Amino acid sequence: MEFLVRAENRLPPETPEEERSRLKKGERARADELRAAGNLKRLWRVPGRNATIGLYECTDATELHDVLSSLPMFPWMDITVEVVATHPQEQ
Amino acid sequence: MEFLVRAENRLPPETPEEERSRLKKGERARADELRAAGNLKRLWRVPGRNATIGLYECTDATELHDVLSSLPMFPWMDITVEVVATHPQEQ
Amino acid sequence: MEFLVRAENRLPPETPEEERSRLKKGERARADELRAAGNLKRLWRVPGRNATIGLYECTDATELHDVLSSLPMFPWMDITVEVVATHPQEQ
Amino acid sequence: MEFLVRAENRLPPETPEEERSRLKKGERARADELRAAGNLKRLWRVPGRNATIGLYECTDATELHDVLSSLPMFPWMDITVEVVATHPQEQ
Amino acid sequence: MEFLVRAENRLPPETPEEERSRLKKGERARADELRAAGNLKRLWRVPGRNATIGLYECTDATELHDVLSSLPMFPWMDITVEVVATHPQEQ
Amino acid sequence: MEFLVRAENRLPPETPEEERSRLKKGERARADELRAAGNLKRLWRVPGRNATIGLYECTDATELHDVLSSLPMFPWMDITVEVVATHPQEQ
Amino acid sequence: MEFLVRAENRLPPETPEEERSRLKKGERARADELRAAGNLKRLWRVPGRNATIGLYECTDATELHDVLSSLPMFPWMDITVEVVATHPQEQ
Amino acid sequence: MEFLVRAENRLPPETPEEERSRLKKGERARADELRAAGNLKRLWRVPGRNATIGLYECTDATELHDVLSSLPMFPWMDITVEVVATHPQEQ
Amino acid sequence: MEFLVRAENRLPPETPEEERSRLKKGERARADELRAAGNLKRLWRVPGRNATIGLYECTDATELHDVLSSLPMFPWMDITVEVVATHPQEQ
Amino acid sequence: MEFLVRAENRLPPETPEEERSRLKKGERARADELRAAGNLKRLWRVPGRNATIGLYECTDATELHDVLSSLPMFPWMDITVEVVATHPQEQ
């Protein structure tokens, strides 16, 4: 089952570069794992914003929450989830 | 997997009583089937509105759409779906 | 009488782990009491957010406020309450 | 238990005067009954709009819906309900 | 002339208990004076929020502003005012 | 007491020219009376819209509603009223 | 370049079945052409709504408009376009 | 003085082709005149919508309203105007 | 050319009294100059808020921005500008 | 391909003058480079706000994001991007 997930990153601009860099590396590593596991199918950048739109595949919303909250940036992210259904044209 | 579903019924007030009554009967019959099938777990009335909030259980969003679009009032309903996850306190 | 209660937890990400953990334990303990008392009937997680949707049963809005403000996280929660009526199909 | 009820009347401007007048008379008569029954405690006009704000007293949201849907104008009204609690200063 | 006044209290959760308590006592004392003066006719609690809805009576909006800004919590309150007219049914 | 009044005119574009012209003439005549009576102090056009912003002076919101509902276009107007207070700098 | 395109279909529920069916067939045929041309990469159903979310690939917004306005349902569709950028993790 | 003008065209999809074509031709002719007069400096299409964004130059808002209301489609257009100032970097 | 300008003052409640008083005095002095120059024609208080609505007269939006940004409180003000046109009834 | 870009500058008013001045100089220098490169075609000031609207030309949204995130003020800017298509009248 697929979900469109919009994530605005609210990490304050004053965050020390070292902390920011550590978080970003962790974020990328975890995202790679989620790609390998088939949970993260696509990731787009929202132009002009520190924000992304991701296409996730999970068995249900509970697994999706576990996936999203496993990201190191999660405490600073403002996330909205939209569940999408398969369109008959694609079946 | 559970979904909270808000449905505003936009059937025009000018709809002839006979048509309205036929639709309502069909709506109730279909809702009873969905209850029996375990898809419709709770249904609330939004006070003061021709609107409901339902708690649905479906395997995924595709089945949910099939369930909702099988309701006779569907063409007049303005529906918004919110997917909910299991809370750790309830596991 | 039932209420759907959406609660966004605005506890700052910088909160020390000890304080956060103490609040969470207190939150769970109080929620268990509210479950035992029949005030908290269901609790869902909003996927991707530090937020919940709860189904509460209280005699009126005044008791509901007492119930919600008794939660240890209350000072950091942004809560919206929606009152729901019994649907004729469920009577 | 008290509710603040905002009602926008969407009766089309093209409605024949006779029909409009019949509905208004019925509306007033029913409102008088609700006042006598203690359900309608105050009614204000929203200035510049065909809209009202009412303070209702009902045992619960289900009774409130019965009260509101008993008004002859109900099919044309766009109603939003806000539940209010007793403030400690007034106890 | 009557006004419906919604006031969200934005006093930060980190405010020391002593300061909070001092402000609350002053708030109550001032509210009692406004009740005695006939300016504050009703006060409701918005359930689940540190917020109130008040029914005020003032000669005009200028007096209303003086009344509201005389409350000790005023600097932390986010207030919206809605002016209401007398409904013909109540004349 | 002054009010800022925004009025969107929703008269359908299909309205016959004769009807439209009759309403406009009546609107202007009534507005002139309100100017003479001191109720309508300024009237602006919202550029690009069939809408106006007016500065009204009335004893209270009840008189304001009588004034606004006396305009021939009233049944087609979507009006929002904002009450304004005297600023200390202008006293 | 990719675009996320949300399309709400506002075709009135009263549309004769024959017309609706003709439009749907044309819609599907045109969508198949757009898939073959590489413009339409994914199509999801918004559950509970007569609405879709599509992932389109076009050289620019002008081509995207030509693509969308070539759909037979276009005159009844309320479309919002969100442009997305490639995320560094996917380069 | 420059204005950014967003115009949504609400001409109903049921409008006969002949009427639509006549309006479009008139619209184009009037736009050409406004371009020649220096009032219409740029015009963009909002992708996926029957809507435009225009950059207009007028002496003031009153002239802008005259310019916009001279367009044959004006009665069906939902227009919002944003006034922009010269940026110091461009002086 | 006239503008309606809404200004919410976001100066934090924790600002020391001395600083606040210095800013207010400067604000008043500058406002008096703008009144004398004919730029500030009216100023209202939004009741219940640390906010004003002003009616400004400037040659264009660039001058308006210079006027507004010359106010000592400008860095803390959240300002929205609405441009208004002369109404034919007032010409 | 053109984009309309709205940027609200959220640099806190408490920022030391030196830091603010350094950022502004850098901002101007980078903007000049973007102008020279043909990416920044127009820049307007939103009157009354520390905000701009820019007309950018980029090959796609990915280049646009690179352009915007190269601005020294980027970490404090709240940016929204609207993609625009060429209007047939301008082809």
TrEMBL record, chains A, B, C, D, E, F, G, H, I, J:
EC numbers, comma separated: 5.3.3.4
Transmembrane segments annotated in the record for this chain: none
Reactions that this protein is recorded to catalyse: (S)-muconolactone = (4,5-dihydro-5-oxofuran-2-yl)-acetate
Keywords, comma-separated and alphabetical: Aromatic hydrocarbons catabolism, Isomerase
Residues in coiled coil: none
Basic and acidic residues bias (residue ranges): 1-11, 18-28
The name this protein goes by in its record: Muconolactone Delta-isomerase
Native species: Pseudonocardia alaniniphila
